[in-house]
Design brief:
The strands form 2 sheets. The chain has a 6-stranded mixed sheet with strand order 2-1-3-10-4-11, sandwiched between helices. A 5-stranded mixed sheet has the order 7-6-8-5-9, with helices on both faces. The N and C termini lie far apart (57 Å). It contains 13 helices and 11 strands. Helix 2 links the parallel strand 1 and strand 2. It is α/β, with parallel strands linked by helices and 331 residues long. It is globular, with a radius of gyration of 23 Å. The longest helix is centred in the N-terminal third of the chain and has 31 residues.
Length: 331
């Protein structure tokens, strides 16, 4: 009995020392961080919006932290390969994720074989920027506004289609949300990226699209497609006569904005996360960065980790419900 008691005491003491060792090791890690290059992982090919955002903040992190921040493109599965890579990486501040919102709050509900839970398995550091989305149609359709499009679609159920930049991505879910909110019957056609769908939209092979404004700006300016609706929190300054979804009577849709964020593996020490948030928030408020973000159709955000995490949780709940109602799931 005495021997068992001694063993129990030693086990408790060992557990206490181990806990103390962990608590002491984390500040020590944060104090010397970074002492080697940092990898900023992007889930899409070079030249896309997420990649451009990463290459915007990378130099600012390099300058402030004194170590190279190297952008690493790991494209595939709508960004999910990159998300999984960062989720499984050591939580030491040397592997970070530059995300688009769909990777975090949409994919868990649309990909049936997803092997990760990015909402719970990542540290959400800050939202870098967010911007509106533009609903466009073919100029040949006899509609001048979104209400007329909805009326035409209801008069021809199942005869029109909408284009997405990929099955299971955020634009797919957002357009399914639009379908549910308006009550129209319209079929999905999937393309490999936002630019790939434009020729078919212009040629009336598909009748509706949803894109960030920079993707469709040239086609809109040249009159090849017609903007009907802004999905976002305010009107697009370059389209002053196009109403928001709220103004058109569909306020729920204005949650479907385009955002980009910075994340780290779960358990990354708080001092590292706080430093990263501070550096990014400062960098994106500089005039040159704001000008670049504006060209990309984005407003700088730089919110706190707590604010960012709450936004993610709210969107995750909403989009899970939308995916359930739409029966939206891809393999």
């Amino acid at each position: 009995m005495a021997q068992n008691t001694g063993l129990a005491r030693r086990a408790v003491l060992a557990a206490g020392l181990a806990a103390a060792g962990v608590s002491l090791a984390r500040p020590a890690l944060a104090e010397k961080w970074p002492d080697r290059p940092i990898r900023l992982v992007v889930g899409y090919a070079p030249g896309g919006l997420t990649d451009l955002i990463a290459r915007l903040i990378g130099p600012a992190l390099t300058e402030e932290l004194g170590q190279p921040v190297v952008v690493e493109n790991r494209s595939g599965a709508a960004g999910n390969l990159a998300t999984e890579f960062v989720v499984r990486a050591p939580a030491d501040g040397y592997v970070l994720l530059a995300s688009s919102g769909g990777q975090i709050t949409v994919s868990p509900h649309t990909y049936g074989n997803l092997r990760l839970r990015p909402v719970e398995e990542l540290e959400h550091i800050t939202m870098i920027g967010e911007g509106d989305q533009i609903v466009c149609t073919n100029k040949a359709l006899p509609v001048g506004n979104f209400a007329e499009f909805v009326a035409l679609a209801k008069a021809q159920p199942g005869r029109m289609s909408y284009a997405t930049s990929g099955a299971g991505g955020n634009l797919h879910l957002f357009l399914e949300f639009l379908r549910l909110e308006t009550g129209i019957e319209i079929e999905a056609v999937h393309y490999r990226g936002g630019s790939a769908l434009l020729p078919d939209l212009m040629n009336n092979q598909v009748q509706l699209s949803l894109s960030a404004y920079p993707v469709v700006e040239a086609a809109v300016r040249e009159g090849q497609i017609r903007p009907l609706l802004v999905i976002g929190r305010k009107r697009e300054p370059r389209l002053p006569n196009v109403p928001t979804a709220t103004e058109a009577g569909y306020p729920a849709l204005d949650t479907c904005v385009n955002w980009f964020g910075l994340h780290a593996p779960k358990g990354t020490p708080a001092p590292i996360r706080e430093t990263l948030q501070r550096v990014v928030a400062t960098a994106i408020r500089k005039p040159a960065a704001q000008e670049r973000l504006a060209v990309l159709g984005l407003d700088p955000v730089g919110n706190s980790p707590a604010e960012f995490a709450e936004r993610i949780r709210a969107e995750n709940r909403l989009y899970g419900e939308v995916a359930r109602r739409a029966g939206l799931q891809v393999d």
